[in-house]
Amino acid sequence: MNKRNNTQTITLIGAGLVGSLLAVLLAKRGYRVEIFERRADMRRKDISAGRSINLALANRGIVPLQRAGLMEKVSPILTEMKGRMVHDLQAEQNFQSYGQKEEEVIYSVSRSELNKICLDAAEQTGLVNIHFDNKCEQVDFKAKTLMVKNEHNGQISTQAFERIIGTDGSASAVRDAIHNLTSKQLEVLPLGHSYKELRIPAGPKGEFQLDKHSLHIWPRGGYMLIALPNEDASFTVTLFMPSKGKCSFESLDSKEKLLSFFNQQFSDTLPLLPELVEDFFANPTGQLATVKCSPWHYKDLALLMGDAAHAIVPFHGQGMNCGFEDALALVETIDANETDDIDSTWQAIFSTVDSSRKSNGDAIADMAIENYITMRDSVRDEKYLLKSALAFELERRFPSRFCPRYSMVMFHRLPYADAKSRGIIQEEILTKLTAQIRSIEQVDYLLAEDLVINKLLEVNLNPE
Ligand SMILES: Cc1cc2nc3c(=O)[nH]c(=O)nc-3n(C[C@H](O)[C@H](O)[C@H](O)COP(=O)(O)OP(=O)(O)OC[C@H]3O[C@@H](n4cnc5c(N)ncnc54)[C@H](O)[C@@H]3O)c2cc1C
């Protein structure tokens, strides 16, 4: 029974992935939601949904979508990815499974289609009002007003709010407003690497031109190309490489240099990328950075969620998944504080979410940077492959204690901070067990048992 005062209105800034899903979750609890979104309505105007055409959706993102009742709509637009297909310089392909159970897969999903499903569902609740083309310029916490600019006619209006949630992405205006009033900590850490999106179209008979159930990687040490499948049998391809320097986006400044680079490094992709030159020079080069900040809230008035709180690099495919988990954490905290007088508990709710999610945001940010090196380099290293095989074996032998770190992050809901700290211990165990050997048959399993039992406590991988 919902005892809450349903006349409460929560204002969200940003109707991207996290804002639109959060709106659904709040409206399902009876809140009225006003959203100000600076972009046009992507359901009515053909605008790009922003960076990255498709995304990897994993268990942490699926559970909040399930709780919002959206998986029935989302499932048909998902393409299963069971592992990495690693393409070497000789065009040999090598499949590396992500997990070892049938359900241990991730999904490629169109950013814009997923966002549209969330926007539709938010509006269908009858409690969510989305003001598109309205950019939040300033927040006045004293007066409890927003200064909003209409992106069509440039007019500025003042909008009152009761409580505000910043789901306005990595350059968040709400974050700036909170930090203007607090002793903030803000780190914006550019990666020094950028990305460019390209496209492999469907084949002449509408077929996938690469294995459809893999995330394809062409790891080349300092840089890499990846490809994720789309529903229409195309692949969205992304080149990640240094922004500046000898082999960088800056250095690929002519058609000849681009083609020669692809010829040397990714020759098997050339027949698949008919628009390579046009796409490369027409598409924007995206910058990559990590944003770590604190606090994520201001009194009982404001909270940050998603990229506004923790922008991370995309190499673990977790930015959106983490943002969805934030949204679920907020509404679960609201549920846990359900009283007749919820007004007086908002500060506690915001502060609880801030303190429980911040360490997890930091942890996935760090793991995402590490995973860039795994993807662009380690996946072709014999020792890495041996350790991965051993990690699966230890998971089989000690399922209550050992779970490969990739699996903890992608297939389970153990807090990211715990996945990171257990991952460090597991890496030490794997390093020790593989130091003197070259094949899995040579592993000393008595030593393995001793290490696992003594160093790793039993774990609940999916705490409620
Ligand atoms: C190349 C790339 C690949 C990625 N791949 C993955 C992946 O595979 N899996 C994954 O989980 N994540 C991935 N991510 C991360 C993911 O894109 C983000 O974490 C996710 O989009 C965050 O959602 P959000 O709603 O917090 O922010 P955003 O998606 O940035 O949405 C913010 C919204 O706020 C609006 N806005 C901004 N400022 C204002 C303002 N002042 N007033 C009003 N509205 C405003 C914006 O227009 C936008 O609609 C990837 C990111 C990149 C760059």
Tell me which CATH architecture of the largest domain applies here: 3-Layer(bba) Sandwich
Kindly, what is the distance between the CA atoms of the first and last residues, rounded to a whole number of angstroms? 21 Å
The number of helices is 13
Enumerate the strands of the largest sheet in spatial order, edge to edge or round the barrel.
Answer: 6-5-14-15-16-13-17
* CATH level-4 homologous superfamily of the largest domain: FAD/NAD(P)-binding domain
> What is the C-level CATH assignment of the largest domain?
Alpha Beta
Would you tell me the structural class of the helices and strands?
alpha/beta
Total individual domains: 3
State the helicity in percent bands: 25-40%
Instruction: Show unreliable segments.
Output: none
Hey, roughly how much beta strand do the residues contain?
A: 15-25%
Inertia-based shape? globular
Could you name the CATH topology of the largest domain?
FAD/NAD(P)-binding domain
Number of strands: 19
Overall average pLDDT: 96
Describe the structure.
The protein has 464 residues and is of the alpha/beta class. The protein folds into three domains: 9-78 and 110-188 and 289-372, FAD/NAD(P)-binding domain (3-Layer(bba) Sandwich), CATH 3.50.50; 191-287; 381-455, no CATH class. The protein is built from 13 helices and 19 strands. The chain has helices at 17-27, 59-67, 71-74, 111-124, 173-180, 255-265, 276-282, 319-336, 346-376, 382-397, 405-410, 416-434, 445-455; strands at residues 9-13, 32-36, 54-57, 79-81, 83-87, 93-97, 106-110, 128-131, 134-140, 145-150, 156-160, 163-166, 185-200, 214-219, 224-229, 235-242, 285-294, 297-298, 302-304. It has a seven-stranded mixed beta sheet. It has a six-stranded mixed beta sheet with strand order 8-2-1-12-19-18, sandwiched between helices. A three-stranded antiparallel beta sheet has the order 3-7-4. β9 and β10 (145-150) form a beta hairpin. α10 crosses α12 and α12 (416-434) packs antiparallel against α13. The two termini are 21 Å apart. The model has no long low-confidence stretch (mean pLDDT 96). The structure holds flavin-adenine dinucleotide. Flavin-adenine dinucleotide (FAD) binds at residues 13-19, 36-39, 51-52, 55-56, 135-136, 167-169, 173, 195, 238, 286, 306-308, 314, 317-321, 323. Residues 13-19, 36-39, 51-52, 55-56, 135-136, 167-169, 173, 195, 238, 286, 306-308, 314, 317-321, 323 line the site of flavin-adenine dinucleotide.
